[in-house]
Amino acid sequence: MKYITEMTREDIKNIRLIVLDVDGVLVQRGTKIKQEGNTTTLETKRIAEKQIEQIKKLNKMRFHININSGRGLYMLQEMFREILPFTSLTYENGSATWIKGKIYQHVNSFDYLKDVFPKLQKVKHENIKGFEPKEFIITIHCRGRVSEIEEIMKKEEKLYSIWNGEAYDIGIKKIQTKAIGLIDLMKILHLKKENILVIGDNYNDAEMMSKAKIAITADKTRVSGDFYVELEGNQLPADVMMEQIIKISEI
Ligand SMILES: [Mg+2]
């Protein structure tokens, strides 16, 4: 694995689509959520102005931008409002993609999740902070692991339940993944593997990173890639990566 500043103009000559994960890449990890009775309080994170400018610049150069996240559409639209005219949003771990107001649904999880959802809602544990509002997957934010949730999920052979250190992400094994969303998006945009660059930082990014010509990891303790970015101080991984792409494209 090479450090990102070793990436050259030659490496990215065929790249047309830059796929960015959000948490741990474009914003710091961590979701502030609180649920009391029927009231959910959820913080919307902001993308820094510098990253908005970088994305605008990349789009002017030749690149399509795709955000591929486990977050819900309403949240991503709010975060990327300023750049929506040229940014597609693949949300809830590959469940669907929003492109200029049109939604392409990649996965229908209703039958798979409808029975387990009420079981999970019945679990009471001091570690549980709340269920993040989602349409196609289940995301339960917790202060630490909850064995009752894991016991329920063990019996669900068709479902995955990924603990990422701050939440359980629950969806359909092999079907409801960021990679499936990316593969469908590539068909919609008529792009091939050689046209794709992906940056991600977590276990749920590994498979989609394997579908790209160039994979960049923002946390090499969790996923590997062709290049890596270190989490150094305050500079976000997406910032360092976009800086490098802009630099080598301008030569
Ligand atoms: Mg992430």
Summarize the structure.
The protein contains eight helices and 15 strands. With about 250 residues, it is α/β, with parallel strands linked by helices.
Q: Report the CATH topology name of the largest domain.
A: Rossmann fold
Shape: globular
User: What's the architecture of the largest domain, going by CATH?
Assistant: 3-Layer(aba) Sandwich
CATH class of the largest domain: Alpha Beta
**How many helical stretches?**
8
Radius of gyration: 18 Å
The amount of beta strand, in percent, is: 25-35%
Distinct ligand kinds: magnesium ion
Ranges where pLDDT stays below 50 over 5 or more residues in a row are: none
> What does the average pLDDT come to?
95
Quickly give the structural class. alpha/beta
Assigned CATH superfamily of the largest domain: HAD superfamily/HAD-like
Helix content: 25-40%
Domain count, please report it: 2
**Largest sheet properties:** 9 strands, mixed
Number of beta-strand segments: 15
Sequence of secondary-structure elements? EEEEHEHEEEHHEEHEEHEHEEH
Q: Which sequence of strands runs across the widest sheet?
A: 1-15-14-13-2-5-6-7-8
Distance N to C terminus: 24 Å
